[in-house]
Automatic annotation (TrEMBL):
Sequence ranges assigned to domain 2Fe-2S ferredoxin-type in this UniProt record: 2-78
Organism for this UniProt entry: Actinoallomurus liliacearum
Iron listed as a keyword: yes
UniProt KW Metal-binding keyword: yes
Domain of life where this protein originates: Bacteria
Range of residues in the leader sequence: none
CDD domains membership: fer2
Keyword tags: Iron, Metal-binding, Oxidoreductase
Protein name: Aldehyde dehydrogenase iron-sulfur subunit
Gene3D superfamilies linked to this entry: 3.10.20.30, [2Fe-2S]-binding domain
Length: 163
C-alpha cells in the first residue's frame, strides 16, 4: 500500500492504494468518479480516457501510484461549475452521442487535442502544425471507439469548438 497525492478535477486528494490499482479503478472505486468508463480494460477502446497533466491517457493502463503528484482531469472536471464545457455543449448541439457510454472518454480526448501540436501520420507537411481539419480530428481521435457509430457528429462537434 502506498499513499499518493493527486489533484483531481482541481481538488487535492490523498489516497492510500494498493500498488497494483489502475488510475481508472482509483477514480471509480476509491474516489466515486464514475463518469470515466471501464470499457475494455485493455487500452483499446478509449472509454476511460482522462487528462493526466493535460495530456490524454487511458486510465485503465495507468497505475495510480505512478501518478503521484499529477493533475488529473476527468469528464466531471471539464465543466466550469454549472456551465458546460464548450465541448459538452457542442456534443449536445450536434447530437454527438447515442448510448453515451463512450462520451466521457470522447470528451476528455477532444479536450486534450489542442495541447497536442505538430504533425500526425496523415499530415502532408511534416514541418507544419496542421489545423484541426475533419481528417486530422478523425486521426487524432482514432483511439476512442464509438460502438454506435456517432463519429460524424463527434467530429463536427469537435470542429465547432476547435474553430
Amino acid at each position: 500500500m502506498t499513499e499518493i497525492y493527486l489533484r483531481v478535477n482541481g481538488e487535492q486528494r490523498s489516497v492510500v492504494v494498493d500498488n497494483r490499482v489502475s488510475l481508472l479503478d482509483l477514480l471509480r472505486e476509491h474516489l466515486g468518479l464514475t463518469g470515466t468508463k471501464k470499457g475494455c480494460d485493455h487500452g483499446q477502446c478509449g472509454a476511460c480516457t482522462v487528462l493526466i497533466d493535460g495530456r490524454r491517457a487511458n486510465a485503465c493502463l495507468a497505475l495510480a501510484v505512478a501518478q503521484d503528484g499529477a493533475e488529473i482531469t476527468t469528464v466531471e472536471g471539464l465543466a466550469d461549475g454549472d456551465g458546460l464545457h464548450p465541448l459538452q455543449a457542442a456534443f449536445l448541439a450536434r447530437d454527438a452521442f447515442q448510448c453515451g457510454y463512450c462520451t466521457p472518454g470522447q470528451l476528455c480526448s477532444a479536450a486534450g487535442l489542442p495541447a497536442e501540436t505538430g504533425p500526425s501520420v496523415i499530415t502532408a507537411d511534416l514541418t507544419a502544425d496542421p489545423p484541426l481539419t475533419p481528417e486530422e480530428i478523425r486521426e487524432r481521435m482514432s483511439g476512442n471507439l464509438c460502438r454506435c457509430g456517432a463519429y460524424v457528429n463527434i467530429v463536427a462537434a469537435i470542429q465547432d469548438v476547435a474553430g
